[in-house]
Each structure stands twice: as C-alpha cells, then as structure tokens.
Specification:
The protein is mainly α and 403 residues long. The chain is built from 15 helices and 11 strands. The longest helix is centred in the last third of the chain and has 27 residues.
C-alpha cells in the first residue's frame, strides 16, 4: 500500500502550493466563524418553515434537490442564512491537531481547539445518553425526514474523532471525556440491525437504515476510545460493526452505499470513509484479520476513482460531477494508504481547477456547467485536514530522502 516516490524538488514545489492553498481556505473559513451555506439547507427557508409548503414530503424533497443542483445561489432571496455546522468544527479540530508550521503557532492551535471544544459542548443535542450532533437544518431524503439537530452517527463520529485528535496532541481531558460520552450515544441510542456476523448501527435514533460508511465511522470512534480505556464492551461493539460491513463487501472489493435498493451506488468519498475507518480500526486494536478486505477494497478504490492527472471521479463508473468533497476525501484516503504521488496530483488538480482567489473551493464541475457556490462544510471544511495530512506525509518523505 505504498506509492512511487517523487524528487525533493518536486516535493518542495508541491508543498509550497499545498501550504498556500491550505492557509487561504482556512483563513476564508475562520473569517466567517465557520458559518456558511449548505447544499441541503433549503428547508431552513421561512417559505418552507412557515407555510404549508413545508408539510409536503414531495415539495420538501423537490425544493431541497432543486436548490442543491442549481448553479445560481438563490438562498438570499429565500431567506436561507449562513450557519455553523458542527461537522465543520469537528474537521477543524482534526486540522488543528496536525502541526501546521506554515501558518499557525502551537499556542494559537491549542487556543482555537479549546474554543471549538467548548462550542461543541454547548451545541450537543439534548435528551440522549451522551454528547451527539446532527445538522442544523431539516433534511428530507426519498425515504426519511430528519428534523434539524436530530443527532446522527456520521456527525457524532466525525466530531468524536476530532476530539480524540486534539486530546492526543494537546492533552485535553475535556475533549476525551466528550469523545467517550459520544460512544454512549452510539452504543445506547442507536438501533442495531443484526447480520450473519455482527450488526449495523443505524444512521440515527429511531431508524434502521443500514449505511456502511456511517456504521464504520462509529466503529472507528469506538475502537479508538476502547483502545484507550480498555473497555471490552466498547471494543466488541466496534468488532461487531466491522464484521457486518466486511460480510457485505462485494467480490470486486467494493461496498455499495447501503443495503436498500436505492443505495446500490458506489461513490468515491463514502468508499474512502469505509476504507479509512477500517484501517484506523485495525491500527487501534491491532486486528490484522481485516488485512485482506482492506487490500481488496483499496485496490478497487485506486483502480476505479481516478482519471489521468489526478482528477477524482464521483462514482466508480463515471467522472462527473467532479466534487470538491470527493477531492478532499480522495487526498485523505490516498495519503492514508501511502499513495502520496496520486494524493499530490489530486491536491494540485483541485487547487488549480477548483480553488478561487478568495480561498474557497467551488462545489462541483459538471460536464456542461460549473457550480461555483461556496459551500462551507461540504466543499471546504474537510480540505484543510486533507491538505495538512498530505503535507505532513510529503515532509516525512522528503526527510527520508535527505537521510
């Protein structure tokens, strides 16, 4: 799972571009206090919240999808206002836990992390067994409706992992306590669908949705916390969630998004989540039994999701839309599996084709048009973490060559 090497001069050129890109997108987000708009925030419009239109599932879904797909930002006209998404803060924690010598001091990084941890504590959903988070907007899918602030495993796991990261770097006991508490939400508030082996965690309380990347993100957090505390029940829950996911890996190494018929698609970033969570689980618990599944999953991912020159594909069988979130997760996944050369190619392609002079990354490039709307969580919050992960790997590779 390693990559070809590149020369020191090529690494230095790539690092200069990556450091500059990371600084610019981080400054853009921090100026807004991590408040932004979202692809799926249409239902926060007063038109939907205060009129009978918002009572219809079909109208909710149509309006949400229309606003998400339009390349023109109509949100100001509809009264949709920028808000901070808790997941953006979770990724900010993960970025702060990585050393960024180009533009942030140790003292500044710790102070920023402490502020974010406090803010996350204040905005945790209430009435559950542990800290947990959702999205600030109502969310309609073809199958379900999730109200604003309804906690879900994905948000909670991403934030929990950020809390674990800043605890590991800065020694923040309050961050670790919140991460451990988030495990209680996963263990006690989510439903479990049993399989031949193990079970799948539900997406949120009250549903039985079987989504592989969501369950695996929960397993990753449980594995990291369980490895730190030695709690066998926490570790076993992680093992069971992993077993269920491995049993549903396809013969070619892929995973569909989920088990329901309309979830049969295979896409870039959700596959990346599964692979990175599985690798982190294995590293946390020393479980080598997943090695074959990891290798097959990695090989499918590497063979199906990238075009020449580092262009990240959205789906395994077609390129468009070229998506900034998929690009960011591609950088994370490729770096995690040691393919630094392709990770750098993806990063440089995204910087050159998707980052604006203002610093933010645009949403998507379609075959016939480009959507340049600056979505914060979806298109930008993950990118600094991805670029910092890659920069750290590039510096390590350069040091190894020099010595």
């Amino acid at each position: 799972m390693t990559s070809e090497s590149i020369s020191v001069s090529e690494q230095e050129q790539a690092l200069a571009a990556i450091d500059d890109s990371c600084r610019r997108v981080t400054v853009w987000m921090e100026r807004s206090g991590y408040a932004g708009i979202e692809p799926h925030d249409a239902l926060t419009s007063p038109l939907m919240r205060r009129t009978p239109l918002g009572r219809s599932r079909f109208i909710r879904l149509a309006v949400l999808q229309a606003l998400r797909r339009l390349p023109v930002n109509l949100r100001p006209l509809l009264g949709v206002r920028p808000r901070a998404n808790a997941v953006s803060l979770g990724w900010a924690l993960r970025s702060l836990a990585l050393r960024a010598p180009a533009f942030r001091s140790e003292e500044d990084a710790r102070h920023s992390a402490e502020k974010i941890v406090q803010e996350l504590a204040e905005h945790s959903a209430q009435g559950y067994h542990g800290p947990c988070w959702g999205y600030y907007f109502d969310w309609q899918t073809r199958a379900t409706f999730k109200p604003a602030d309804h906690p879900i495993i994905v948000s909670t796991a991403f934030i929990g992992l950020g809390l674990m990261d800043v605890h590991a770097r800065f020694g923040m006991p309050e961050a670790f306590a919140m991460a451990r508490g988030a495990c209680e939400f996963i263990l006690r508030d989510l439903n479990r669908t049993p399989g031949r082996r193990g079970f799948c965690f539900s997406y949120g309380p009250g549903d039985h949705e079987q989504v592989f990347n969501a369950s695996m993100l929960g397993a990753e957090l449980l594995a990291r916390v369980g490895a730190a505390t030695g709690e066998e029940a926490v570790v076993q829950a992680a093992r069971d969630a992993v077993a269920f996911t491995l049993d549903h890996q396809q013969p070619d190494g892929s995973w569909a998004y989920g088990l329901d018929g309309h979830w049969s698609f295979i896409d870039n970033f959700h596959t990346g989540y599964v692979l990175c969570s599985l690798r982190a689980y294995s590293a946390s618990l020393g479980d080598a039994s997943v090695a074959d599944a990891l290798e097959r999953g990695w090989r499918f991912y590497r063979d199906h999701f990238f075009e020449e020159g580092g262009i990240p594909k959205y789906y395994h069988n077609r390129l468009h839309p070229i998506d900034a979130h998929a690009a960011a997760q591609s950088i994370v996944t490729l770096t995690e599996f040691g393919d630094i050369v392709m990770a750098a190619r993806v990063a440089l392609w995204a910087i050159n084709h998707m980052q604006t002079p203002e610093g933010y990354f645009i949403y998507q490039i379609h075959r016939r048009f480009t959507n340049r709307i600056p979505y914060l969580r979806w298109a930008n919050a993950l990118m600094p973490y991805a670029l910092l992960r890659l920069a750290t790997a590039l510096r390590g590779q350069a040091d190894a060559i020099r010595h």
